[in-house]
């Protein structure tokens, strides 16, 4: 994952750094008619690098995905029928984390799950 993050960083920042180096060596490039557009696109591409990292982490890091799903299930605007998140703990044992309204949700949605959890209907 770190290799992907570094490669994407290099790819995003290379055009702007190439322009900066080139303009230091030959300041006449700033007289080209399209140089402002080239600089704008290069600068935008470099700054956009920060937007890509959460997607990389979200797709490739299991712990990040697990915590994101936990936070997403806590959101009240999402009508999710699962009121808990199952995951492997740090020591590799299966664990279950309920949302703050897990028990209240069971009472209101008793037709989905009994009081003993999702395994018994």
SSE order in H/E notation?
HHHHEEH
Helical amount: 55-70%
Largest pleated sheet: 2 strands, antiparallel
What is the gyration radius calculated from CA atoms? 24 Å
How many domains? The number is: 2
Strand numbers in spatial order across the main sheet: 1-2
Instruction: Measure the end-to-end span.
Output: 40 Å
Gross geometry:
elongated
Unreliable segments of 5+ consecutive residues: 102-121
Could you report the average pLDDT, rounded to the nearest whole number? 76
* Count of helical stretches: 5
Total beta-strand segments: 2
Query: Strand portion, in percent?
Result: 5-15%
Oligomer: single chain
Question: Which secondary-structure class do the elements indicate?
Answer: mainly alpha
A few lines on this structure:
The protein is mainly α. 57% of the residues lie in helices and 8% in strands. Residues 1-57 form the G-protein coupled receptors family 1 profile domain.
Polypeptide structure, described:
With 121 residues, the protein is mainly alpha-helical. The protein has helices at 2-25, 35-47, 49-60, 62-74, 102-108, and strands at residues 84-88, 94-98. It has two domains: 2-58; 62-108, no CATH class. It contains five helices and two strands. A two-stranded antiparallel sheet has the order 1-2. Helix 1 (2-25) packs antiparallel against helix 3 and helix 3 (49-60) crosses helix 4. The radius of gyration is 24 Å and the shape is elongated. The two termini are 40 Å apart. The model is unreliable at 102-121 (pLDDT under 50).
């Amino acid at each position: 994952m770190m290799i992907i993050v570094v490669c994407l960083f290099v790819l995003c920042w290379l055009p702007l750094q190439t322009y900066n180096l080139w303009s230091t060596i030959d300041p006449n490039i700033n007289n080209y008619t399209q140089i402002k557009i080239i600089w704008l696109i290069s600068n935008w591409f470099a700054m956009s690098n920060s937007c890509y990292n959460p997607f990389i982490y979200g797709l490739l890091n299991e712990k990040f995905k697990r915590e994101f799903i936990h936070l997403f299930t806590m959101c009240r605007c999402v009508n999710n029928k699962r009121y808990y998140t199952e995951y492997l703990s740090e020591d590799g044992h299966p664990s279950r984390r309920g949302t703050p309204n897990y028990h209240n949700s069971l009472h209101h949605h008793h037709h989905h799950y009994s009081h003993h959890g999702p395994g018994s209907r």
